[in-house]
Design goal:
By secondary structure, the chain is mainly α. Helix content is 74%, strand content 0%.
């Protein structure tokens, strides 16, 4: 009977092999959209099983995928599903490398643009990419990526993110979704040296008395 360590080593070896295989294929990336989506789904699934502070072999095996995901061909892909899938994979990588960011400041700014754009899809609960967007939101909240947005002075993006949350949030969203939105907004407000009028405006708009009846969940989130 295999020991726990042997089982863990076998599992790690399998993960390393899978990461290298997918990474090599993504680096070519001159594949049809359907095949590309399948590769990204596969990568997303593998990454979701990798813990923070992974071993050196896993860190090395991550490199090809990390390079591929920020290539122009993937990061600026025109297909909406590919964009969401790429963003979801990058969100998993930022979770794995936290508290360090996996890319330089300019690349992170571009990634934050994709993440905030993805949050607009939270309104479509039945959308086929909804689960991926939830995963992005969860990672941004859990590893406090919004604070990196503050450090990089992504002020307009933060305002846009607040606007998305307050416009989209509904009573049929899971409580975990609402909690993640609330955590992100609270962290930003708590850690901001000065809260701008532009950032306060969407909050105050949502707190209008009539909004308590028209959109009570948004009113409650703003409160």
């Amino acid at each position: 009977m295999a020991s726990t360590n042997e089982t863990e080593n076998l599992g790690e070896s399998d993960t390393v092999k899978k990461l290298k295989h997918v990474g090599r294929k993504l680096l070519r990336c001159n594949v049809p959209v359907d095949e590309l989506l399948e590769l990204l789904d596969n990568l997303d699934l593998i990454l979701s099983t990798v813990n923070q502070l992974p071993s050196e072999p896993i860190q090395e095996a991550l490199v090809p995928s990390m390079k591929a995901l920020i290539s122009d061909e993937l990061l600026r892909h025109t297909d909406e599903d590919v964009k969401i899938s790429v963003t979801s994979c990058i969100a998993e990588i930022t979770r794995i490398t936290a508290p360090d960011t996996p890319y330089d400041d300019e690349q992170m700014k571009e990634i934050f643009n994709l993440m905030v754009a993805a949050f607009d899809k939270l309104s479509d609960i039945s959308g086929h990419y909804y689960e991926k967007v939830l995963s992005i939101l969860d990672n941004v909240a859990k590893i406090r990526l919004c604070l990196v947005m503050l450090d990089l002075e992504c002020d307009n993006l933060i305002i846009e993110m607040f606007q998305h949350f307050l416009r989209i949030v509904r009573s049929n969203h899971l409580q975990d979704v609402i909690d993640s939105m609330e955590l992100i907004m609270t962290l930003v407000l708590d850690e901001s040296d000065e809260v701008s009028a532009d950032l306060l405006r969407p909050l105050l708009d949502s707190l209008r008395k009539e909004n308590q009846t028209i959109s009570p969940t948004s009113w409650s989130l703003a409160e």
